[in-house]
Amino acid sequence: MEQRVSSQSGSNAAEFTVSELSMSLKRTVEDTYGYVRVRGELGRVSRPGSGHVYLDLKDDRAVLAGVIWKGVAGRLAIQPEQGLEVIATGKLTTFPGQSKYQMVIDHLEPAGVGALMALLEERKKKLAAEGLFDEGRKQLIPFLPRHIGVVTSPTGAVIRDILHRLADRYPVDVTVWPVRVQGETSGAEVANGIRGFNALPDDGPLKKPDLIIVARGGGSLEDLWGFNDEDVVRAAADSLIPLISAVGHETDWTLIDYAADRRAPTPTGAAEMAVPVRSELLAQVDDLNRRRLQALIRSFDRKRQDLRSAARALPRATDLLSIPRQRLDQAAGRIGLALTAGTARHRARLDQAATRLIANNPARQTQNARDRLITLQTRSARAMDIYLERRTSQLQNTSQRLRLDRLSDRAALLQDRLQQSGRRMEQIFIHQIERKRSSLSGFEKLLKTLSYQSVLSRGFALVRDQQDQPVRSASSVSAGEALSLEFADGRVAAIAGAPGDTPPPPAQPAAQAPAEKTTRPRRKPKSEDNQGSLF
């Protein structure tokens, strides 16, 4: 590193640039500490769009910034969450851009089982509050599914146990969705397997299963942590296909067990829950078939007995036909007489019809109609002559009433009446104008009499303040206030004196003799009741 000696007098200290000092500190920190393991609680956890993870490791006295690069974050078995106590392994370095040191984390693990249990309990409460574990959401497992989908590892002993148990009990079609059941990507793969089975079409080459089994063998809490992933729980809760969770042994509980429709203690137990035993079904079918045959035999025997009892109670056929046979013989004896009587009755009706036809001969009816038509023609011609004579007479009377001399006399009479009406209207209009003019003159005199200006012409004055508002009392005027006195012939400005002051008498000119006092007739004071306000 290049060092410079300060040019200041009396100083031999080396001089660095900011970049040189930052890089020197960076090398010092990295060479001194190298890889370290730090235990602390995760504070701020930030995941920007770049895929890197920025976090804070803290205890009760200090905070250490940390970063997990994108490639490492995808391989972590435990994803960092705020509040989780972890042990972080990595190296210390500095970030010159902000003059801070930080830890580049390569591995992250929980600080003991207690931290994982606390995180598991917190996540369980959160998902339960959303209703993902409610019993009302769970579906019934089909009694005899034809197609089962299994989400598990294709190479483990779990799938062999499930297939062996299904083959022993009731062979059905099985489709395996291969996933990793341990590691950082196991949760995402299991969730994709559940959603993938739900997305299969009903009539595609790979049919949608009737039941899904999510299975894994036993292991530690860290090994089973992928089945506590929030995405797995939501996929199991949203599954439209009934789902059995068979993760771990009977004592192992994961969050998918709460969201699944049924929980099996082991993968083998899940296969036993999924299908019944074929031999037991055959025995049950044989038993039901035997009971059905016995029930049919008993039913036939009972109906045969009922038929025999009913047959004994029924009368013989000869007894039932004896009365109808007698009625038939009697009817055969009466049929000849009935035919003779019927023939005579129809002959009489035929004679009556012939008589009516002779009376209604068409030739006779035509002659009668011709006679009536001639009569109507004669009457119509006569009525037309009478009508023409009547209308002619009415026309002559009307023409006499409408003679021109009568119309001219009536027009002259109407014109005289119109002129008389015009003269009367003119007189009425002039009279109305005179009356309105007289009323308007009276109102004008009354207005002048009631106006305050007529009062001013009698020697009074109107006092106004600076706002040009009338002053109504002496108490509202302060000393030195500018006033305006309005007389009948103009206005005069004035200054108010103190209350109680008497204005000085006007000065008499020396050379002029005092003018003779004119005596004015004293006005008779008006009563207080009749004194009105000037304003």
Structural class: alpha/beta
Q: How many helices?
A: 13
Succession of helices and strands: EEHEEEHEEHEHEHEHEHEHHHHHHEEE
Low-confidence stretches: 510-535
> What is the C-alpha radius of gyration, as a whole number of Å?
65 Å
Quick one: CATH superfamily of the domain at 135-276?
Answer: Succinyl-CoA synthetase domains
What shape does the CA trace take?
flat
Return the CATH architecture of the domain at 135-276. 3-Layer(aba) Sandwich
Distance between the termini: 103 Å
Describe the structure.
By secondary structure, this protein is an alpha/beta fold. Among the domains are: 14-111, Nucleic acid-binding proteins (OB fold (Dihydrolipoamide Acetyltransferase, E2P)), CATH 2.40.50; 135-276, Succinyl-CoA synthetase domains (Rossmann fold); 282-310. It is built from 13 helices and 15 strands. It has helices at 18-33, 70-73, 113-129, 157-169, 186-199, 230-238, 255-259, 267-274, 278-313, 317-359, 362-401, 404-450, 452-456; strands at 4-5, 14-15, 35-46, 53-58, 63-68, 85-95, 100-110, 147-152, 173-178, 211-216, 243-247, 262-263, 462-464, 482-487, 490-495. The protein has a five-stranded mixed barrel with strand order 3-4-5-7-6. Strands 9-8-10-11-12 form a five-stranded parallel sheet, with helices on both faces. The longest helix is centred in the last third of the chain and has 47 residues, at 404-450. It is flat and about 145 Å long. The model is unreliable at 510-535 (pLDDT under 50).
